[in-house]
């Protein structure tokens, strides 16, 4: 099934909620969640960096 909704999250609970809703859940890894269980995620990405100073 191809979802029409993408959800960017950084917590296990929100990742699971996105999965239950049928969304394409993307986890953004950061220092505070690096050891989380993100089995429900469709994609796990590294932390984004900002060029804003």
Tally of alpha and pi helices = 1
Distance between the termini: 40 Å
Characterize the main sheet: 3 strands, parallel
Mean pLDDT: 86
Q: H/E order of the elements?
A: EHEE
Instruction: Tell me the domain tally.
Output: 1
From the structure above, extract its key features.
alpha/beta; 3-stranded parallel beta sheet; 17% helix; 53 residues; single chain; 23% strand
Walk me through what this model shows:
The N and C termini lie far apart (40 Å). The mean pLDDT is 86. The protein has one helix and three strands. The protein is 17% helix and 23% strand. It has one domain. It has a three-stranded parallel sheet with strand order 1-2-3, covered by helices on one side. The protein is of the alpha/beta class and 53 residues long. It is globular and about 25 Å long. Helix 1 (12-20) links the parallel strand 1 and strand 2 (24-28).
């Amino acid at each position: 099934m191809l979802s029409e909704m993408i959800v960017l999250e950084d917590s296990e609970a929100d990742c699971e909620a996105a999965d239950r809703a049928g969304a394409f859940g993307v986890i953004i890894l950061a220092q505070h969640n690096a050891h989380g269980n993100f089995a429900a995620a469709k994609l796990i990405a590294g932390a984004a960096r900002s060029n804003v100073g």
